[in-house]
Write a structure and sequence with these properties.
24% of the residues lie in helices and 21% in strands. By secondary structure, the chain is α/β, with parallel strands linked by helices. Helix 3 packs across helix 4.
Length: 414
C-alpha cells in the first residue's frame, strides 16, 4: 500500500469536501404532473425549424432548450428528468438537419440567428414564463454558445458541456488538423479513433444534413424538404475544414469564432468540460470561460483526464440541477455563491484525486524536457521537469597565442 499516496488522496478529498458547493436541491419526491407533448414548425430568418416540447399540462413554466443536429438519434430523451420539477423540455433540430428546413451552416451565422429566433419564439408561448435556458453536450452545447453571443433577450442562462467555442481551434488546434490521437490504446481505448473530430464537417454536410424531413404530415413539410435539397455551402465547408496546406484563420473562421463575441454575453454561464476530451479540445472551455468578461456569473467545471468527451462526474449533475432551479425557478439554494469559481477534478496516472474547488489557480512557469522511455511502449516519449542532461559544469577555456608588441588580449571567464 502506498501510504504517501493514500495520505495525499485523503488530504485532497478532505479539502474538496470542505470546499464543496454549498448548494441545495429539493428534487426528491416531486409528483409526476400531467404532461403535454407537442411538435411545432417555427419560422426563423434562415428556415423553418422543427421543435418538440414536453411540458406540464398546467401552469406557466420556464423552458430548457437543446438545439441539435443529432435529432435522427432521438429527441427529448431526458424530459422525465426536468418536466416533473416544473420545466418544459424542448428539443429543436438545427437548421438544415433533421426535420428542419434551410441550409446547414457548420457553426455559422444561420445557426446563431436561428437559435436566437427559436429562443424568442419559446419565450412568447402562452405556457412560458419568458425564461429560456440552453444546455447540451458537444454540438448540442456549441449551439448554446452560438445563441448566447447573439444575446436573445429571453435567454436566461446556458450550460455548455464539452462545447466548441472557436471552430477554427476545433479543426486546427494550434494550426494543425487534429486527426487520430497518440493514445489509441490508452484510457479511452481503440474507440478514440472515432472520437477525435475528424468527421466534422463531412459527417454533417454529407450525413446528418442529407436525410430530408420525415414528418410528412407536419406543416410545410414539402417546403422544408425542398429547402434542404437545394445545394448549400457543403463545398465551402469542406474546403475550409480540411485545408491541410494553408489553414488560415480568415473570414470563414472569424464568423465561427464565438470567443471573439464572448464579451457580449451578459447572462450566467456554467462551462463544463473534461481534461481527457479527445474530440473537443480542453482549450475550447478555457478560452470561452476567460472570454466571458461581462457575464454577471461564470463558473468552470472540469472533469478528470480519465473522462472523455462528455460531462464531469463528481458533483456536476447536482450542480446543474441547482443552477437551473435558481436561475429559472428562482429558488434560493446557494447558487451562485455556493458554486466555486473553478471546479477541476485532479488525477495522477492511477486515477482521480478529487476536485479542486476555488478561484482561478495561480500558475508557475515550469521548464519541461523531452525524455525517451523505451520501457513504456505506449508512451515512448515523455515530458519531464528533470533535464535528461547532467548538470552544467563550467569547464576552463585553454588557449594559447603569440602576439606582437602592441596587441591587447581579453577573455571572458564565463
Amino acid at each position: 500500500m502506498d501510504v504517501r499516496r493514500s495520505l495525499a488522496t485523503a488530504v485532497v478529498v478532505a479539502v474538496a469536501l470542505a470546499a464543496a458547493p454549498a448548494i441545495r436541491s429539493d428534487r426528491a419526491g416531486a409528483a409526476e404532473p400531467a404532461q403535454v407533448a407537442r411538435s411545432y414548425v417555427v419560422p426563423t430568418r434562415h428556415g423553418k425549424i422543427y421543435v418538440e416540447v414536453v411540458r406540464p399540462a398546467e401552469g406557466r413554466v420556464p423552458a430548457i432548450l437543446t438545439y441539435s443536429p443529432y435529432s435522427v438519434l432521438g429527441r427529448n430523451g431526458d424530459a422525465s428528468q426536468w418536466v416533473p420539477h416544473g420545466y418544459a423540455r424542448v428539443w429543436a433540430d438545427v437548421v438544415g438537419t433533421g426535420n428542419s428546413g434551410g441550409c446547414y451552416d457548420y457553426g455559422g451565422v444561420r445557426e446563431r440567428e436561428s437559435a436566437y429566433d427559436v429562443v424568442e419564439w419559446l419565450a412568447r408561448r402562452p405556457w412560458s414564463t419568458g425564461k429560456v435556458a440552453m444546455m447540451g453536450g458537444s454540438y448540442n452545447g456549441t449551439t448554446a454558445v452560438a445563441a448566447a453571443v447573439e444575446r436573445p433577450p429571453h435567454l436566461t442562462t446556458i450550460v455548455p458541456e464539452a462545447a466548441i467555442s472557436r471552430w477554427y481551434e476545433y479543426a486546427f488546434s494550434g494550426g494543425i488538423r487534429y486527426f487520430w490521437t497518440n493514445e489509441a490504446l490508452g484510457n479511452q481505448g481503440p474507440g478514440s479513433g472515432a472520437d477525435e473530430g475528424f468527421d466534422t464537417p463531412l459527417a454533417f454536410d454529407f450525413g446528418f444534413a442529407v436525410p430530408p424531413p420525415v414528418d410528412a404530415g407536419g406543416p410545410d413539410w414539402a417546403e422544408r424538404v425542398e429547402s434542404t435539397m437545394k445545394p448549400c455551402d457543403e463545398i465551402e465547408h469542406t474546403a475550409h475544414g480540411y485545408d491541410f496546406d494553408t489553414p488560415n484563420y480568415g473570414r470563414f473562421w472569424r464568423e465561427r469564432d464565438y470567443v471573439r463575441r464572448a464579451g457580449a454575453v451578459d447572462i450566467p454561464v456554467l462551462v463544463a468540460h473534461n481534461w481527457g476530451d479527445w474530440n473537443v479540445k480542453q482549450e475550447e472551455a478555457i478560452n470561452l470561460y476567460r472570454g466571458l468578461v461581462n457575464a454577471p456569473v461564470k463558473r468552470l467545471y472540469m472533469g478528470s483526464r480519465f473522462r472523455g468527451h462528455g460531462t464531469p462526474s463528481i458533483g456536476f449533475a447536482a450542480t446543474v440541477d441547482a443552477w437551473f432551479d435558481h436561475y429559472l425557478l428562482g429558488i434560493p439554494n446557494g447558487v451562485p455563491e455556493g458554486v466555486p469559481e473553478v471546479t477541476s477534478e485532479m488525477a495522477d496516472d492511477r486515477g482521480s484525486l478529487g476536485n479542486y474547488t476555488g478561484p482561478w489557480p495561480a500558475t508557475t512557469d515550469v521548464t519541461l524536457f523531452a525524455r525517451a522511455d523505451t520501457r513504456d511502449p505506449d508512451y515512448p516519449w515523455k515530458l519531464s521537469v528533470q533535464t535528461p542532461r547532467p548538470p552544467h559544469q563550467p569547464k576552463p577555456a585553454l588557449f594559447s597565442f603569440t602576439t606582437g608588441t602592441h596587441t591587447e588580449a581579453a577573455a571572458n571567464a564565463n
